[in-house]
Amino acid sequence: MTFQTSPPLTQSPRRQFIRRALALAGGTQLAASATASATSAQNTPIGAAMPDHLRTPGGADVPYGQPAQHEAAVIRTEAREAGFSVWRTPLQHQRGIITPSGLHFAVHHNGIPDIDPARHQLFLNGLVEQPLRLSWDRLQRYPMVSRVHFLECAGNSAANALSPFAMDLPLGQLAGEVSSSEWTGIPLSLLINEAQPKPNAKWVIAEGADAGSHARSLPLQELHKHGILALFQNGERLRPSQGYPMRLFVPGWEGNANVKWLHRLEFSDVPAHTKDESGLYTQVLADGRIQRFALTMEVKSLITRPSGQQNMPTPHGFFEIEGFAWSGRGRIVRVDVSVDGGRTWAAAHLDSPVLDRSFTRFSLPWQWQGKKSVLMSRATDEHGHTQPTRGVWKSRYAAHSFNHYNAIQSWSVSRDGRVENTYA
């Protein structure tokens, strides 16, 4: 009699990845975790009291859906700095690449204007052959596009850039001035082509309709190539804190250049050198030179779990390190993670989709054994740009500079499992 044997089982790519990562991170055998899980399941009590939600009909829904009451602590935090208000995204609670609209970061220099969309108009004037005056109703006739992109304040992570010691704060308060959304609107190229800029028009001064008359000078060529007149965010009308009824959006550019409550695009042959671009949003280099119109946000990543003021689970064992990476210059192609302060690195897994100038989620399994560790992530984009260390970044800029800080973020994990911000 002949017996037919089955082919040997092969490991899935995911399991192979986990084993490689554990080996690089100094992990223990997966079998121990599996045994612990089985033991836990055997000890689950049987016949426990049935919870109320299984015995009683639930409550009514509401016209506009709200988060569960048990998630009431997942909110933005506010800080008031230099006369303006900053609302930060709690990145430590975000798991997907889309930030909920109600948690999207916001910076307000002059408060939030109350604008009636029926009376609001967008003007395109200056060095153009055909000046335009566009109402909301007229704008609805233009073709629209939807794209998922991040938006980051130029001053995000300023605490780590300026403070001589690592401040013990949650991730959202350290680096929560960045979010990612689906933006829907009209490609600016359509409006620019219709206005017919004159040959000497090289710049566009974008002006908001807030009381401070916020304005930024932006290169026409880039606006034509990448700019969007954003009207919707995550499938609904822009919220007031995001520029209702319309805002400028240029993927990858610093938040302040994405002018909210947009009501005028003036074409010019020279930049206007407005108060913001000549002051707060101008970089000073280490040698004293001035860096103007540095609009693009550089490649960056953050480990969101575990992160500041979180605690590692007990007993010690399997844990998935995860976070987000992004670049204002394109797609993320690699994220490396270190659990020993940068002495060794392992390539993290990048979740799909990996989009252009958007959050990319990364993860790496790790066996924590109750030892002191320093976690770091280092992102690389498709053009070869990689995050610098804090020391390298500080050496490039004057001591008081903080805009466009994209240095590697480090987290210290103590033996008792508490996670803190650290400089490494």
> Level of helix content?
10-25%
Gyration radius (Cα, Å) is 25 Å
Distance between the termini: 67 Å
Number of helices: 9
Class based on secondary structure composition and strand pairing: alpha+beta
Mean pLDDT across the residues is 90
- Trace the largest sheet across and list its strands: 5-4-13-8-9
The outline comes out as: globular
Care to count the β-strands?
24
Oligomerization = single chain
Catalogue the unreliable spans.
1-11, 25-42
Major sheet summary line = 5 strands, mixed
Strand content: 25-35%
Task: Write up what this structure looks like.
This protein has a five-stranded mixed β-sheet with strand order 5-4-13-8-9. Helix 6 (188-195) packs across helix 7. The relative contact order is 0.14. The protein has helices spanning 13-24, 30-42, 136-139, 158-162, 171-175, 188-195, 220-226, 275-278, 390-396, and strands at 77-81, 84-88, 106-108, 121-126, 132-135, 145-152, 178-187, 203-208, 215-219, 228-233, 236-237, 247-249, 262-268, 283-284, 290-291, 300-305, 317-326, 332-338, 346-347, 349-350, 360-368, 373-381, 410-413, 419-422. It has 424 residues and is of the alpha+beta class. The radius of gyration is 25 Å and the shape is globular. The chain has nine helices and 24 strands. Strand 4 (121-126) and strand 5 form a beta hairpin. The model is unreliable at 1-11 and 25-42 (pLDDT under 50).
